[in-house]
Structure formats: structure tokens, C-alpha cells
Amino acid sequence: MIRRLLSVWHARNLEFLRDRGTLLFTLFLPIALVVGMGFVFGGPPRPLFKVGVLAERIDKGSHPFLREQYMEFVATPDETAALRKLTHQTLDLVVDLRSPARYWVNTDSPKGYIVEKLLLAAAPDAQRQPVTGVAVRFVDWLFPGILGMNLMFSCLFGVGYVVVRYRKSGFLKRLHATPLSAFEFLGAQVLSRLAIILTVTTILYVGIGTIIGFHSAGNVALLALLLVMGALSLIALGLTVAARFSSEELVGGVLNVLTWPMMLLSGVWFSLEDSPRWVQWVAHVFPLTQVLDAARAVMLDGAGLAQIAPQLLYLAATTLAFLAFGAWSFRWRID
Amino acid sequence: MSTPILEVRDLVKQYPATTAVAGVSFSVPPGMCFGLLGPNGAGKTTTIEIMEGILPATSGEVRYRGEAQGPRFREEAGILFQKTALQDFLTVRQSIALFRGLYSSGLSVDEVLKVCALEALAGRDSRKLSGGQQQRLLLAIALVNDPAVLFLDEPTTGLDPQARRNFWELVQSIKARHKTIILTTHYMEEAELLCDEVAIMDRGRIVAQGPPQRLLREHFAEVLLELPRQDFPQAARALPLKVLEASDRIEITTQDLEGTLRTLLAAHVPLTNLRIRPANLEDLFLALTGKELRP
User: Fold this and answer.
1) Which of B45, B94, B99 best tests the A interface by mutation, with the highest count of A CBs <10 A?
2) What pTM does this model have?
3) Residue A334 within any structural domain of the chain
């Protein structure tokens, strides 16, 4: 079994490496995305400030600062959670307006600097509190999202289209005439794509890390384990989609239906913490959301294995479920 | 008689709109080259794909060495489909090595390259082969497990005459190694040359089966006279002769050659382009299935 699997794995790797156009595109896309996002998000601060208020609810009449314009006030009763968001720059300032008024500001945040001035104009006696822990730049917060999005596209489209092409061309039918089982074939595809993705992700991690210099508080080996588990789950999802279709257009459509909601709702570009509860519930069904939540916990907060165990288990479970369904519904030939 | 290596029993394959195979039975002893002949849509490819284990039958069964097809059959069968694409970007050697890796035993890649005369092409991208070279590669892949039974589904369709003859020589060398071969083909010359026994299929059924020479003796006690269509005047069609009209020629079958020639001369039919020959499988095929190739 291992020999057959390795045989298909080796041939698939050769095919991928010799398809220079696809290889270059696979490497180029994530780098272009990072550069592009740097331009988009690296410019002047957005006009809207987000301020966390240590209270159960926002009472605009309770303090003149809460009546300032162009600010979004978010009730955050949990001080620890609020300060974590402040270090991640998903909040620009945290205030406790109960007497004596206190506030926390991320000194690395340009928006924090401005909103601090506005606060002191409205509440000159407010006491500045020290922020513990390392402040996180937006690029630090964004980087796991870039890794995750690259993972998602490479896993879903890389595997899905290849299998459909094999089926259309009759290559799968020819393999079916050998002792190779569907599980062995799918396993070889998973491992081949996994090797490619890990290589590309390592290049991204080291390359972008060297160029931009991002913050990573956690264990790199744990991050690698998480990315492997995430890649396995997403590859298995791609194989499930491609298990029986024989039209690239159809598979492309289905994959788009999967990737767009993941791209928008998994927290690649912005935090969903203030989104409606149902949106957050839907988002957490996606494997990509689990990957990003855990990757940010490891990279930004230095989370350990125990903290991201639920996400790892979820990814393992979805991998097995997708592979089992894919093997069950797999078709070697066009019906 | 030796125990059959393959037995097909009451095979039926139904699709929603048609019955592709309507109760086919035959058996193939080891070492035989067995030909399935028939026009397009006769059910040859459906039958061979059920035998290969690629397609499920609606009813009936295929037995390999007396047992239902199983893992042993997959290990010991070599298959060349009508159309097969290989993995892109692999050389001839790598394509063969890929398939060699899927079997527990068989020939080495070098041995297969030699058998199929592909040594000089071993390093070439498999997409850059000519039609004949491509078929030789597909045959090499079918031989990679040193199969006991080899399925060849219309292996020379689309090849030029030279490539076709080269391929026949290869198949004859495989036959000489006592391999069992199941062959489907449109080319009667191919069937006559390679097959020890043929089954002629039409509309999903076998309409004749046996060694080619025996079938010819059974169906043709006559000789055939061929004339260009333009040399056979309209008035001659009323003559008391067994005439078959093909697209470009007239075929007259007769047991009385001298009498037929006298009749034609008396009717002033020009005989300059007359060709006299014994019946072959092509004639048997046409006589049993009709002139037109049905889609």
C-alpha cells in the first residue's frame, strides 16, 4: 500500500514541479497579496476610531466623551479581553469612565495617539494605565490571515481541479484498472499537496518575516502542526468537492461558493468579534476560521497546545469526515 | 480442453435508454488470443470493460480462473483502453515506473522498455510521442505487471498502416509468450492475423463465434468477385447472381466461377478490373452485421 501510495505521490510531485506556470503562480500569489495588502492597510489611519468601554452597556448620557463623533464605542465588560484587543489593535483605546476615570492606550497605534487626545480633552483627569505585553501591529494580526488564505486557495483549487482533470482525461479510469484503491489515490493527493503547501508556507513565513518583520509570540513547531492540520482539512474538503464531478467549471463554481464566504467570514481581513452571533456561528463551521483563530492565538498571544487543542481536534475530525465522504462518493470515471 | 482463464456468463448491461449487452456468454482458455468484433455500438467495449472490472454488469458474471474478479485479477490483468491520457510532464520511463509501482510483481521498467521497443524514447515527455509510439507506451504500461491476461480495446484505431503493423508484431511477440489476449477491433485483417478465436457481436449479442478459418468455411463455400461499381451496368443487376453492393464496388459470391464469368461476359460487363478472391473475415463481418456501420 505504502509503495503504491509513494509511487503516485512521486509522480504527482514531478507533474506539479514541471508545470512551471502553475508553480510560479503558486509562489507569486501570496507574495503579491501581502504587498497589495500592505499598500491598502499600510496607509493613513481610517477616520473611525473604536473605543472599548469597561461597562455592561454604553450610556451616552453618562459622560461627555461618549458623545464624541466619528467614534464607535464598544461595551467590553471583561478588562483582560479588552486589553488583549487593544494590543491586537482591534480597539484603539480602552476606557473605564467610572470615577476615577482610567484609560489604556497602545502606544504603537497612531489612532490610539489621536483618540487619547480626544479623551483627555473631554476627561482631563483620566489616568493613563500601563499596557502589559507586546503591542501588535496590524501586519502582525494580518499575517496569519495571509497564510490561511494561501492555504485555502492552494488546498481547494490545487486538488479539486487536478482530480477533475484526471477524471476527464481518462487517467483515473486507467488507474482504476490497477490494484490502486480510492483511499490510496486520495491519500497520495493529500500528501503531495501537503508537501507543496508546507514548502510554500515555509518560504512565505521566512521570506515575509525577513522583509516585513512580524511578531510571533508562540512556538513555531506548534504553528507548523496547526498549519498541517488545517491544510489536511482543506485538502480533504477539496477532494470531497472533486470526488465525482467531471466539469472544471462546475467544480470551480462550487469551490468559489466555499472560498468566498471563508475569505469574508473567517477573519482573514478583519475581526468578526463585533459581528452578529449567527455570523460568528457560521464562520466557526469553516476550517479556515479554526486555523486563523488558533494561528493568531499562537502567533500573537503565545498560546500553547492545550489552548488550541479544540481547534486541532475540530480540524482532525473534519479531515476524517471529508476524506471518508470523498472516498465513499469517489468516481473513477465519468458516469 | 484446459480450464478457461476467463468465463463470461449471461452478461447483460442495460442503460436507461438502451441495452448495450444482451446476454453474452463465452469462455477463453489460457494462452488464446480471443477477438471481439462488431460494428460501432455492437457492445464490444461495454463487454470488455465489464470483463476488465471497470464497469458493473446489470446481470451475469465474469469469472477469472474460476473465481469472481477480485484483487488477484487486478494484479494479473493488463489493460489497454481505447483512449487513455497519462499524467502530464512525465517521461516515458517515469510513466511506466508510476504504474510499475502499483503492482506487487512484474517486469522491470527496463525490460518493459525493451519489449515495446521504447528504449530510445525513455527520456522523452510522453505528450510528445507520435500516435504509434503512444500506443506502444500504453502497451508497455499494460505489460508492466507481466499480466496473465491482456485486454486490448481497439489498440490500433487511428494508427497509420506502418504503425499498425509494428503494433501487430509486438502483440504477436506477446502471444508467443503464451499470454491470454482479449482483443476488440474494427480491423478484420487484425483479427485474422492475431486471433485464435473470434466472437462477432451485433446489437449486444454474439452472432457467430469460433476460429476465423472455421467460421469462413461454415459461412462461405464460395469465392468472391469484386468489380468497380461503375463497371457494373444497371442492366446487369437483373442477372441471376448473388450481388452485394458496397459504396465503391460490387461483390458477387458464387460457387460456379466459370459459369458466373460466362454470364458477365454475355452481359457485356467489362472484366478488366475484376478481382477474384476467397472470402475473409471482412466478408463474414459484413454478411452477419450488414453493410452499414450503425452508430
Assistant:
1) B99
2) 0.73
3) no
